[in-house]
Write a structure and sequence with these properties.
This protein is an alpha+beta fold. It folds into three domains: 118 residues, Potassium Channel Kv1.1, Chain A; 121 residues, Serine Threonine Protein Phosphatase 5, Tetratricopeptide repeat (Alpha Horseshoe); 341 residues, Kelch-type beta propeller (Neuraminidase), CATH 2.120.10.80. It is 26% helix and 28% strand. The protein is built from 17 helices and 29 strands. The strands form seven sheets. Strands 12, 13, 14, 15, 16, 17, 18 and 19 form an eight-stranded antiparallel sheet that branches. Helix 4 packs across helix 5. The longest helix has 17 residues. The chain is globular and about 95 Å long. It starts with 14 loop residues before the first helix and ends with a strand. About 8% of the residues have low confidence.
């Protein structure tokens, strides 16, 4: 608040310079042992200090000197539980407001500052440790911080790395020495990135390391999500537990029942301990090449791995984004295009579920070929797929008539390998877009009155109608939009050639941004951005679009990224590598998603090349 001075008053403000002068005077007084009234003893060090300086700098010392403790009267205090070198550095910080120490001491400084209740220093040391933390250290740091409430941020950071690098962590020697509670924290979370079979194997390996852990095993194993396993693997597990460990689990019985029930019943039975775990995701960009000869067109896909640079700028924001690509043609051999007429696309585990006008195929995005035989089409309905989405492992396909109006929905159950017919939605729509969010399906489409949104609750097999958006819009795609503010709830964005619309499913409210150019601060955008398709990947929203300048030849694939941390849109750079075919006898195809970083054949060229239309972008699991 601005200081108000009357004409009769004199005013002089020397606070900033005086604060520094007082610190310098106190530092000099301590160095010359002037008016010091207490000596801190730790290890073999004796540190003369002023009680008042210690008290105003640390809650620990304030409590010590302002209470009836005997230390409040003592002139020499033994702090045998503290490390002398670390305490000396922190006392120097009290007298200078400057903290300087070698990184090799960060754990010692953290421990000492935690014990004497220096929250700012604890936070600083936590940031340093997490920024430099290696995979080999995450288990040690996690256990160190486990039972300290004041180090909850350090524990959370280490736990995040354990979840993300579980495929490596589970094979470390330190994993076998985890306490039962620590192991429970790891495997009980939906943030764990792993196949459920590997989670189970790691728990059994941990138990075999010390057979006295049987009671803990029974408690921990209930956190395994058996419903995510195949029926064949469940049979093997049940036989092993019964015959080798004499253990019978009701959760395995429930998983078998889950596999055999209808899709609606599956959603009713789902608990947090049964839902699919989070996974690393890659983006698959589907596009249709449009050469001069239209009859010769083909559908292709680009396998894209968004990789965020780990370097963090001073503001704590990510500096830039690189999206790594490799083009794959959807062909089984040079003579057969298995997805020439793509109608609906969605995720199917680590593969892609593709619907054409005549078939359904599951494709491995790293090779472009089927991962197993075609899925039989539904027998009880005329097959006109328009769009698809995946919710808790079940694939929902919106169907329509031969003029493109959506009128029904069917669900493919991968456990039973059958199709279930779902309730019809209330209003037939054109240009449908389907988005899975928060346990429900949201269908966006248009009719004569504007844009219609309808939500599907799979637990009760019923559709509900939301607020309409005035005007008819031809949607390119939709995706969940994570807000920058953690207190705000996510919304859903649906895109048009020159608009982005956001729909909040909680408040049933629409918002519209008139121009894509308002979304980015870069000057490279030439607009209008054609065929804009959004996709959510690893907590970020990516917008893939054709950024071709007017009257230009060919097409230009470009990407914007929305950071949930800053709320800002930034352009992404491309690192492009075409599909590699090796000599006979070697691995036939280059596994892009896993070896791209070590490859020396990288070019800064955005794919695809030529005229194209983006059909859809989806994310697939990288487990």
């Amino acid at each position: 608040m601005e200081q108000i001075i009357s004409p009769e008053e004199c005013y002089f403000d020397d606070s900033s310079e005086r604060d520094q002068t007082i610190l310098q005077s106190l530092h000099y007084a301590r160095s010359e042992n002037v008016l010091t009234d207490v000596i801190l003893c730790a290890d073999d060090r004796q540190i003369p200090c002023h009680r008042i300086v210690l008290a105003v700098s640390s809650d620990y010392f304030m409590a010590m000197f302002s209470s009836s403790f005997k230390e409040s009267k003592m002139t020499k205090i033994d702090l045998t539980h503290l490390k002398g070198k670390s305490l000396t550095i922190l006392v120097n910080y009290f007298y200078s407001s400057v903290l300087k120490f070698p990184k090799s001491m960060v754990r010692d400084i953290l421990e000492t500052s935690d014990l004497i209740q220096l929250s700012p220093v604890v936070e600083h040391c936590t940031d340093v440790i997490l920024k430099d933390m290696q995979i080999e250290e995450c288990l040690d740091i996690f256990q160190y911080a486990d039972d300290r409430v004041s180090l909850k941020d350090l524990k959370a950071g280490a736990l995040k790395m354990i979840w993300e690098q579980f495929h490596f962590v589970k094979d470390m020697d330190e994993y076998l020495d985890l306490t039962a509670d620590c192991l429970m924290d790891i495997i009980s979370s939906s943030c764990l990135i792993s196949r459920e079979e590997d989670v189970f194997d790691s728990v059994i390996t941990w138990f075999n390391h010390d057979s006295s852990r049987r009671d803990d095993l029974l408690r921990i194993i209930e956190n395994i999500r058996f419903n995510l396993m195949s029926g064949e693997y469940l049979e093997l597990i049940e036989s092993f537990l019964t015959n080798d460990l004499n253990i019978t689990l009701t959760s395995i019985k429930h998983a078998k029942e889950f596999h055999s029930c209808s899709s609606t019943k599956k959603h009713q039975l789902l608990t947090n301990k049964m839902k699919e775990r989070r996974c690393h995701q890659d983006v698959v960009v589907f596009y249709k090449m449009m050469p001069e000869s239209v009859g010769n067109s083909k559908s292709e896909m680009t396998f894209a791995t968004p990789e965020v640079f780990r370097e963090i700028v001073q503001q704590g924001e990510y500096d830039e984004e690189v999206v790594e690509f490799a083009q794959v043609t959807l062909t089984q051999d040079p003579l057969l295009r298995i997805s020439e007429d793509v109608k609906a696309i969605t995720q199917f585990g680590s593969s892609v579920f593709v619907c054409t006008a005549t078939s359904v195929e599951v494709i491995d995005p790293r090779t472009g070929v089927r991962s197993f035989v075609e899925i039989t089409l539904p027998e009880y309905t005329e097959w006109h797929p328009l769009t698809a989405a995946t919710l808790e492992g079940l694939v929902y396909v919106i169907q329509g008539n031969n003029i493109g109006r959506a009128n029904s929905v069917v669900c493919f159950d991968k456990w039973r390998k059958v199709w279930d017919k779902c309730a019809s939605f209330n209003i037939e729509v054109s240009s449908p877009t389907l988005v899975a969010y928060d346990g429900e399906m949201f269908l966006f489409g248009t009719n004569n009155s504007g844009t219609i949104v309808q939500s599907y609750d799979p637990c009760i097999d019923k559709w509900h109608q939301g607020n309409s958006l005035t005007g008819c819009h031809c949607f390119s795609g939709g995706s969940v939009l994570v807000p920058a503010d953690e207190e705000e709830l996510p919304s859903i964005c649906v895109t048009c050639p020159d608009h982005i619309h956001t729909y909040n499913p909680h408040s049933d409210v629409w918002q519209t941004i008139d121009s894509w150019a308002q979304l980015a601060t870069c000057e490279e955008l030439s607009g209008p951005l054609m065929h804009c398709v959004p996709v959510s990947c690893n907590g970020n929203c990516f917008l893939y679009f054709d950024d071709t300048p007017p009257d230009s030849q060919g097409s230009h694939l470009a990407v914007l990224r929305l950071s949930p941390y800053t709320g800002n849109w930034t352009t992404c750079q491309f690192e492009y590598e075409s599909q590699e075919v090796r000599e006979e006898g070697e691995q036939e195809r280059h596994e892009v998603g896993y070896q791209l970083k070590t490859s020396e054949k990288r070019h800064m060229l955005p794919p695809p090349v030529g005229h194209f239309e983006i059909l859809k972008c989806i994310t697939i699991c990288r487990k």
